[in-house]
Amino acid sequence: MTSDPSNGYEAIAAEFIADRGARPDVGVGVRTVREWARALRAGSAVLDLGCGPGYPIASVLVEAGLDVYGVDASPTMVEQFRARFPAVPVECDGVETSDFFGRGFDGVIAWGLLFLLSPTVQVDVIERVAGVLVRGGRFLFTAPLQACEWSDVMTLRRSESLGAEAYRRHLVAAGLQLDREAEDEGGNHYYMAVKP
Questions:
Q1: With contact defined as beta carbons under 8 Å apart, do 96 and 72 qualify?
Q2: Preceding omega of 56 cis (within 30 degrees of 0)
Q3: What are phi and psi of 69, to 5 degrees?
Q4: Could you give the residue ranges of the DSSP H alpha helices within the chain?
Q5: Cβ contacts of residue 114 below 8 Å, gap of 6+?
Q6: How many C-beta neighbours within 10 Å does residue 123 have?
Q7: Tens digit of pLDDT for each residue in 41-71?
Q8: Are strands 90-92 and 105-110 parallel, antiparallel or unpaired?
Q9: What region does 108 belong to: left with phi over 0, alpha with psi -120 to 50, or beta?
Q10: Of the four, 21, 65, 77, 78, which is 20 to 30 A from 9 by CA?
Q11: Contact yes or no for 66/39 (Cβ under 8 A)
């Protein structure tokens, strides 16, 4: 585990907030997340892992009438999230160590997060998410279709996709069923799973 649970995002938080977090209703992934959110009933509890400043993903979830909870390891991002969504519970912690509010969820979303973590931690997070999802609960995460490594465009730290075949296998091993996969306008690959 790295000594920086934010995986370098605390150091570039201001830049990230000014770029990705500036406009609540515009951005890559918004359409796909809206579609995913429609599969959940209004009032469903949803955990946003790596929630950042809350825009645009948490904003879409709140707008959909969902009961949102956020977890992010960057204190600056969490501070911005709290300012934007004062009524939404948010915790400053790494997804590796968070207790996920000690409760179950109807949905969990991890947009742009898993591939920032080591392969071992990615698998652990998938298992932990399966553990907090209620029956019928939904999990959405992004990661490239192919197994690959690259430098994160903002932090320059190593990122790694396990690849679709491995993600499908780990979802099944965790007790989840892959519902479908999709790509958005930015070429991001989505895995959407459900807990039977």
A1: no
A2: yes
A3: -130, 145
A4: 13-19, 30-38, 57-63, 75-84, 119-132, 164-173
A5: 122, 125, 126, 141, 142, 143
A6: 19
A7: 999 999 999 999 998 899 999 999 999 999 9
A8: unpaired
A9: beta
A10: 65
A11: no
Euclidean distance between CA atoms 53 and 40, whole angstroms: 23
Side chain identity, residue 184: D
Q: Which residues are CB-neighbours of 142 under 8 A, at least 6 positions away?
A: 29, 110, 111, 112, 113, 114, 115, 188, 189, 190, 191
Please name the fold of domain 13-194. Answer: Rossmann fold (3.40.50)
Residue with tokens 């956020």: 70
Exposure class string for 82-119: b at 16+ Cβ within 10 A, else e: bebbeebebbbebbbebebbeeebbbbbbbbbbbbbee
What tokens does 167 get? 């993600």
In the block, tokens 């951005």 appear at 27
> Tell me: the pLDDT tens digits for 129-184?
999 999 999 999 999 999 999 998 888 889 999 999 999 999 999 999 999 999 98
